[in-house]
Amino acid sequence: MTQRLVVIGNGMAGARTVEEILARSKNRKENRNEVGGEGRIPDGNEVGGEGRNPNRNEVRGEGREPGEGRSAEREARRSGEGGGDGGFVVTMFGDEPYGNYNRIMLSNLLAGVEDEAGIFLNDLGWYADNGITLHSGTRIERIDRTAKLVYAADGTATPYDKLIIATGSSSWTPPIKNINNPKRGYHQGVFAFRTLDDTRGMIRYARDHERAVVIGGGLLGLEAARGLQNHVSEVTLLHAMGHLMNVQLDERAGTMLKDSVESRLGIKVVLNAMTTEILGKDRVTGVKLADGTVIDADVIVVAAGIRPNTRVAADSGLTVERGIVVDDQMRAIGEDDIYVVGECAQHRGEMYGLVAPLWEQAKVLADHITGSDPDAAYRGSKLHTKLKVAGIDVAAMGLKEPETDDDEVIVYSEPKKGLYKQIIIRDGALVGATLVGDNSKAAGLIQAFDRGEPLPDVRAELLFDLGGAKAEVTPGEMPDDAQVCNCNGVSKGAICGVVDGGCRTVSGVMDRTRAGKGCGTCKPLVQRIVEWAAGGEAEEDPAASWYVPGVPMPKPELMAVIRRYELKSVSSVFDKLVPGGEHDAKSKMGLASLLKMMWADEYVDERDARFINDRVHANIQRDGTFSVVPQMKGGVTTPDQLRRIADVADKYGVPMVKLTGGQRIDLLGVPKEQLPAMWADLDMPSGYAYAKSFRTVKTCVGSDYCRFGVGDSTALGIALEERYQGLEGPGKMKLAVTGCPRNCAEAYVKDLGVVAIDGGRWEIYVGGAAGAHIRKGDLLTTVGTADEVIRLTGRFLQYYRENANWLERTYTFVPRVGIDRIREIVVDDSDGIAQALDAAVEEAVQAYQDPWKERAVPATPGQFRTSLPLTVLPQVPVRA
Amino acid sequence: MRNLGPVDDIPLGEGRTYAVGDDMIAVFHLRTGEVRAVSAVCPHKGGPLADGQIDNRVVVCPLHLYAWDLATGCSQSGQPAIDVYPVRVDDGQLILGV
Ligand SMILES: Cc1cc2nc3c(=O)[nH]c(=O)nc-3n(C[C@H](O)[C@H](O)[C@H](O)COP(=O)(O)OP(=O)(O)OC[C@H]3O[C@@H](n4cnc5c(N)ncnc54)[C@H](O)[C@@H]3O)c2cc1C
Ligand code: FES
């Protein structure tokens, strides 16, 4: 009989448990349909991925990317699901207004290494596809165990046959004076770090502020502090205990970690810091510590621990101690029809605050509730953690200190390098390990720890690669249900299933299974398993080498066929080169740039292939207005130019006038429809501050005025900009010329930087960067004249334009190709293409037209019509 | 039913915004010649969808590059859906509504 299953809490445990239950129901149904069922038991293990149960893989693979064939599948599932044969009709309630996302990736989201789209585990389509009714943004207030009803905050009552409580935890707020505001929960500027909304709020607020304080020096606090550095310039971490991560690390490891966090990341750490008060009237201005110290801050993040959400359970009469008490089948004590899973569950006295235990709990729960294994029992989990902070490796598992005199302790410590490794062995088995500063052995240690595997006699092999036989087990020796990715709960069997199903690339397997997408520790193991399952070598992910995602070809091949078929417009490329002729919005801009580079003035310019910035020659801002940056060659201007800019700013009421890092003036907040008139009034050429193109040449004062100057940097900068202005490419090209090695114009960190040195000579550096990524450029060569600088600059830029991937900046391109190889080609002409490069760049230079001249007549109808309700739009008369 | 004017007001492969009553609607002219109409304001951070790039299936918001299906309004990345409006071309005129 079909049963009504209600789940309270649509988080990581709730959604995962439902996935496990669905997998078992499907297995059952299939087995019944298959004559003889091939003896496959509905164990629901991820082995199900081995091609016999394709559904499970599809469910997981598809949750992210609604592809073709979906609606057919949806139909099939709807009719098959809950069809009166022991299946469930599932209803889920979630307090948060979203489908289930990967909470642990909030750290990556804050740090800017993952975007929101990348953290969703189950999008709304997944619920629909599986016939699940999701009430997102709906809180359950009470359970009536007798009538078997749950009551939501909106007053509705929903009946259940079986109930799962997966309410997780909330961030705990320490009792600090003034931390709350009666009207808005937290004081303005104070944030918790638990939900997507918390993270969004934090990012939004931090963007406009400068100094952050994080309260709490555990895993979460450290990840928050690191993430905040992405948004503010100063971050201080306050920890109430004597060393960081005191739950997982001993004092020595904690001290080492503090040194690294301070010296490498530049986060200030204050230990033994009891925060007593939040300062500031309407908004936060700082915090006060017990010893009277005041630390100024305008953003405060509280990461001082979590408390399980047990109120609903307690109010409804379930047994609650620290968490909701469960038996080994994950049922609330004394209840036949109520299960509990995840952080809110208390099992054999233990509470867990990590995801790995909940994968195990979800399996047991699903085995039991579906009846596929009535004897399934959860016996507790072994814990290991890893800090998800780039550049600071910390992994910890089991004991942090020996407990008995018989415990064998092996320690390696190299404080200067911030390296600390400790393992604790009891009766020949690994019972604890700590790694700080080097995680390379983490995966092997976790395996040995989880499975109690025998350890090598030479204990040092556990800590270092000694060059002998590998201590780790080979993929072939691992059982199918061995967990490979603990962050996302993916087994070896699941990975092999996807490989058997035809996906033979590491990145493809990672996308489908999500293995390796959390903390990343397991990536090497995932790679080894994919290689093993693929019978030797994993295939290179072909898509990784494509120039744009929508056309299946790497750049050289793509350029060759474009030439062969003389494809001069973006739509002709899709029509001719994509099987099925499918156009792809996200590939258009890259193709437009490539075709323009290849065909110069023969390029057929389809305006829709351009990004909005290139359609209206201005940079779109967050409110849909644009910014206008006139050209100012070499950062040199005149009173007349300045006066004109000032007049224009006045006339159009420009909300913000700002000096840019590229030594120009930016007029921000300009509505699209005003752009042409402003350009006309300015009567200056475009500064190309919006395109993937040659941007600026930053210069220092140079030899004319500067008492240190040895070369005329300003004149050379102006000449370079004059020549290569507007040159488009796969990425931005920012240049600088500096008149002496003091490097005032920051030439070492530019895509191409020129430095004057003694004797009238110039050094040329390429591949530098000083944005989100910082890299000192590599010395390409040193030349004797400004003319040579100009020529080699053009040649290098052309080589980059022809060979870099779309959006690949020189700081990736140069190390990828190798500076020696680039020097051979560009300086020594080893390949004999220098002349061709020079000619090609010359052609591009000749094709230059100032786009701001495109203003008298719009290039397309409504080119400058507003797209936002900023001003009154053409009102359409309403007819009946 | 509302006449939004000539379809040629929208260049092939681009979108334009129309104010219809109190609604802001972005209408797109696909390269196949078909048209699609969706809500004009991106549900993520209010980006102007008509300024986004499209293909025959999706529109990509110009601010953060999230994509929505033009036929169903569904997000491809866990964002809330956008509204979809019926729209067609009749005798060179854009007709909104059924
Ligand atoms: C920033 C961050 C980083 C982390 N990093 C890691 C890591 O690297 N490794 C690791 O193992 N773990 C990590 N964790 C911990 C991990 O995310 C949690 O252990 C996991 O999410 C617990 O899952 P859960 O389903 O029990 O709780 P949750 O995922 O919190 O889900 C509970 C859901 O129930 C909802 N809910 C609560 N009460 C009600 C109600 N009455 N009615 C309706 N809905 C309700 C909540 O809104 C929530 O959506 C991290 C956590 C955070 C916040
Ligand atoms: S274990 Fe962290 S990503 Fe796999």
From TrEMBL, chain A:
Its cofactor is [2Fe-2S] cluster; siroheme; FAD; [4Fe-4S] cluster. InterPro entries: BFD-like_2Fe2S-bd_dom, BFD-like_2Fe2S-bd_dom_sf, FAD/NAD-bd_sf, FAD/NAD-binding_dom, FAD/NAD-linked_Rdtase_dimer_sf, NasD-like, NiRdtase/SiRdtase_haem-b_fer, Nit/Sulf_reduc_fer-like_dom_sf. Residues 23-88 are annotated as: Disordered. Residues 484-531 form the BFD-like [2Fe-2S]-binding domain. Catalyzes the reduction of sulfite to sulfide, a step in the biosynthesis of sulfur-containing amino acids and cofactors. PANTHER family: NITRITE REDUCTASE (NADH) LARGE SUBUNIT (PTHR43809). Belongs to the nitrite and sulfite reductase 4Fe-4S domain family. This is assimilatory sulfite reductase (ferredoxin). It comes from Actinoplanes couchii. The lineage of its organism: Bacteria, Bacillati, Actinomycetota, Actinomycetes, Micromonosporales. The gene is nasD.
Automatic annotation (TrEMBL), chain B:
SUPFAM superfamilies: ISP domain. Keywords: 2Fe-2S, Iron, Iron-sulfur, Metal-binding. This is Nitrite reductase. InterPro entries: Rieske_2Fe-2S, Rieske_2Fe-2S_sf. Residues 2-96 form the Rieske domain. Gene3D superfamilies: Rieske [2Fe-2S] iron-sulphur domain.
